[in-house]
Amino acid sequence: MPKSEREMELEEDVVIVGAGIAGLAMAVAMKKVGIRALVLERSEGLRATGAAIILLPNAWLALDVLGVAHKLTSIYASTQKECITNIGDGAIQNVSYIGTDRRGAGPRPVHRKALLEALAEELPINTVRFSSKLTSIEAQKQEGSSTAMIQIEDGTTIRAKVLIGCDGLHSVVASWLGLGAPVNSGRSVVRGIAEFPQGHGLKQEFKQFVDVGKRAGFVPLTNIEVYWFFTIKSTPRGESKTQNPKLIQREVMENFAKDFPPIYLDIVNHTNLSTLTWTPLLFRYPWDVIFGNICRGTITVAGDAMHPMTPDLAQGGSAALEDAVVLGRHIAESLIHNGRLVPGEVAGAMERYVKERRWRVAGLIMGSYLSGWVQEGGSTWWMKFFRDVIFYKLIYSRIVDVMHYDCGKLPNVSSSSSKLDNHSKVY
């Protein structure tokens, strides 16, 4: 009996699960090295959860390699200074970002949706298959390794030489690999974008405010928009409150941040409520990344599916962009050597990717957690001394050195090998 229209069988070289930052960046990297990828996204369109994201210089190096940095740097200005104010005693710590990347600039905040769209524009039509929820994975032996048989909720079966899970915090692929579920940090974050139609008049600086169990900040996105956040040592309770933007805004202004400077409260008051979210902060234990099963054959994970972390170093999205370039580089080297995607050889490329990324992202997870713990620490004299004298003046500058990381380049496959078969070169 022939299969119905909803029960198809497809064959793909590379299947990427998830059309977030990691998934789209991964697809762009594959295209850059001459490999067609199919992206499966469970939502009906590109997701813009999170409103905005701060990208550090290491992210811009990756975006340069992917060919999309120029689309965003022409719109979003770099931030050259960070000012951290202690709410309790008024002490101020200043951090300069001048010269932190090769353009002589610093971090840049961007709309998350703008980043996703910039990446998606680089992909051929129909690269992303929306409303496609992954339901099961089965590994099958082929050419000395394994390929993935993927089942989608609509009945479609896909045989993939390579499967990359970029499906976020609750990744189906990570679970299949045996990675432990992300754990709750005991903290949560409120994020939003404030709008000032007549202009906000703020300098292009990153302002942070720290208090016992609290940390908040804001940074201009454009001349009329300001991205802000508030993290607190608690997790949201009650679904009705976390899904009601007006209640979230009131909670921040009248409870969480009532003792914060008027400028911060004014920004929260101007929030576009459609951008407001309140979510728990999850992370994966770094030892799970160091010792866990990050790949099996030609199946692996990237982005939040591999290394969910707290946002205290603004490295979640940046690390996901690095993942795309690093994995793209290793797969391209295998392609150059073999002239096609040989599962056994690709499995070796996966292992090299995991080896390169494992310690890097475990360090980011630890650094992010430490940064959040210290900055939202207690009010005892020793904690204040550790935070203001030791952490900010001696440790923090070393931690933020993570922004100087260069994930490398993508090799030019077409000029390096004439053996590529037609199937591998099709876009």
From TrEMBL:
Domain FAD-binding: 13-336
InterPro entries in the record: FAD-bd, FAD/NAD-bd_sf, MOase
Keywords: Monooxygenase, Oxidoreductase
Protein name: FAD-binding domain-containing protein
Gene3D superfamilies: FAD/NAD(P)-binding domain (3.50.50.60)
Pfam families associated with the record: FAD_binding_3
Organism: Nyssa sinensis
Transmembrane stretches, start-end: none
GO molecular function, a single term: monooxygenase activity
Domain of life per record: Eukaryota
Family recorded in the similarity comment: Belongs to the 3-hydroxybenzoate 6-hydroxylase family.
